[in-house]
Amino acid sequence: MTDTTILFLAKETIKITILIAAPFLVTALLVGLIISIFQAVTQIQEMTLTFVPKILALILVFFFTLPWMLKKLVTFTENLILNIPNFIK
């Protein structure tokens, strides 16, 4: 296994990780921003107000993106397994 192969695998792994994590991170960021603006406007400083909507939004994102995430991960894993003979050379 050459250093080029290792760098390629690391690059692809990081790319798929960022791609799968992006919907969750963007959703948490947007919901957190909306909640913060709402808290600043109404001066309600309840801690549970920040967690419950984020958790619900992330659960919704999880269910909507689950098929897409599984497809990406299965494709990545299949390509990895199919290319094992090429990596060994």
Task: Please give a structural write-up.
This protein is mostly helical and about 90 residues long. The protein has one domain. About 90% of the residues lie in helices and about 0% in strands. Helix 1 (about 5-40) packs antiparallel against helix 2. About 0% of the residues are buried. The model has no long low-confidence stretch (mean pLDDT about 90).
Quick take:
The protein has 89 residues and is an all-alpha fold. Helix content is 90%, strand content 0%.
Topology:
Layout: H1 3-42, H2 48-82, H3 84-88
Instruction: Summarize the biggest pleated sheet.
Output: none
- Determine the mean pLDDT: 92
The coarse overall form would be elongated
Q: Beta-strand level of the residues, as a percent range?
A: under 5%
Share of residues in helices: over 70%
The ordered H/E elements are HHH
What's the tally of helices?
Answer: 3
Low-confidence segments, given as residue ranges, are none
Structure keywords:
mainly alpha; elongated; single chain; 89 residues
